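Suppose you are handed a protein chain with no further information: no name, no annotation, nothing but its sequence. What can you learn? This example shows the usual starting point.
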Amino acid sequence: QVQLVESGGGLVQAGGSLRLSCAASGRTVSSHAMGWFRQAPGKEREFVADINWSGRSTYYADSVKGRFAISRDNAKNTVYLRMNSLKPEDTAVYYCAVNLRYGSNSVRDYEYDYWGQGTQVTVSS
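A reasonable first move is to predict its three-dimensional structure. Written in structure tokens, the prediction is:
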């Protein structure tokens, strides 16, 4: 059992930045890949980024590549998502998740095993 709690969301103007955090508890996630997904109203949940166990390998959706950066601190059992140059279309609830079965490059939400409750990111024009 893994509990994940996202934080760091909020309201920001276009072009601004936010850093999201996802703190895991219940068990260590240091040996597992972690991912970020997002879901906007009326849209399906979509992949944003993931990171392998060591933090040395990352993968991004084309829509955020070059603007977002995923990282992790295994000593803190925490994963981060730094979001720069935010656009209104980035507005969504952002979720973190742990992948117990695949090491990296998992873009499908059903491949993840535990999910946080999400944190709202709103980007104004």
